[in-house]
Design goal:
Elements: H1 9-13, E1 18-21, H2 28-36, E2 46-49, H3 53-57, H4 63-72, H5 75-117
Parallel strand pairs: 1-2
Length: 118
């Protein structure tokens, strides 16, 4: 990542840099990393997310759910829950592909061994 060095005293005196994230990170660790760019080495800074509906819909949050979550004050919790569910789905798909690749590899190795012994 990139650390921001604040050279402008006006920015420093007004709370430091402000980072605006405009997309939903499928990995929470990525969001934490982005948020961490704001206040490095003891400096001040702030962070916010500004998302269009389509970004939230990409993690299966409908427009109606967005409005309801905003009214209930649960928008971030809803984003976090849906992001985690999407990540778990993606992880499961990758795990299944790895398992399938292992089987193909084992078959290939067995075939190669048979060729070498005969």
């Amino acid at each position: 990542g990139t650390d921001f060095k604040v050279m402008d005293s006006l920015v420093r005196n007004n709370g430091g840099p402000h980072v605006i994230q405009t997309f939903v990170s499928l990995e929470k660790s990525e969001q934490i990393q982005i948020r961490g760019r704001t206040a490095r080495q003891g400096g001040d800074g702030s962070y916010s997310m500004v998302l269009i509906d389509e970004e939230l819909e990409s993690i299966d949050i409908s427009s109606e759910q967005i409005v309801q979550a905003q009214q209930n004050g649960t928008l971030y919790a809803t984003i976090d829950r849906n992001r985690n569910e999407k990540f778990a789905e993606k992880y499961q798909q990758i795990a299944e592909r790895v398992c399938s690749a292992k089987k193909v590899h084992e078959n290939s190795m067995n075939f190669l061994e048979a060729l070498q012994t005969n």
